[in-house]
Amino acid sequence: MEKIVEQTMLFDFYGELLTEHQKQVFGDVILGDLSLSEAAAQYGVSRQGIHDLVRRVDAQLREYESKLHLVERFLKIRKEALQIRQMCEDGEGVGTGAGSVRQICDRILNEL
């Protein structure tokens, strides 16, 4: 997964566990494309301070994911839901494909 997309998903899932300051800075730099220098000027700290904060927050978000696996589970369920939709569009949801759809649904339900 592309790093920015991965960071965005981690932030979406675990961002509320961060402090307000961490959310603002990480959001501005990673999601808002603010440069380290611009963020440093905006928050009145050094460029290195912003870099360190972003690096620490990124590590913290990855640590949350390594323990909770919410993004991993979300992506797995999304993939299986897309399979079901594709099977329905291909006409497999009726008749011969019903067993496959049922199996995928069972896997999704087990994840929840």
From TrEMBL:
<comment type="function">
    <text>Might take part in the signal recognition particle (SRP) pathway. This is inferred from the conservation of its genetic proximity to ftsY/ffh. May be a regulatory protein.</text>
</comment>
<dbReference type="Pfam" id="PF04297">
    <property type="entry name" value="UPF0122"/>
</dbReference>
<dbReference type="InterPro" id="IPR036388">
    <property type="entry name" value="WH-like_DNA-bd_sf"/>
</dbReference>
<comment type="similarity">
    <text>Belongs to the UPF0122 family.</text>
</comment>
<dbReference type="InterPro" id="IPR007394">
    <property type="entry name" value="UPF0122"/>
</dbReference>
<protein>
    <recommendedName>
        <fullName>UPF0122 protein FYJ35_04480</fullName>
    </recommendedName>
</protein>
<dbReference type="GO" id="GO:0003677">
    <property type="term" value="F:DNA binding"/>
</dbReference>
<keyword id="KW-0238">DNA-binding</keyword>
<dbReference type="InterPro" id="IPR054831">
    <property type="entry name" value="UPF0122_fam_protein"/>
</dbReference>
<dbReference type="InterPro" id="IPR013324">
    <property type="entry name" value="RNA_pol_sigma_r3/r4-like"/>
</dbReference>
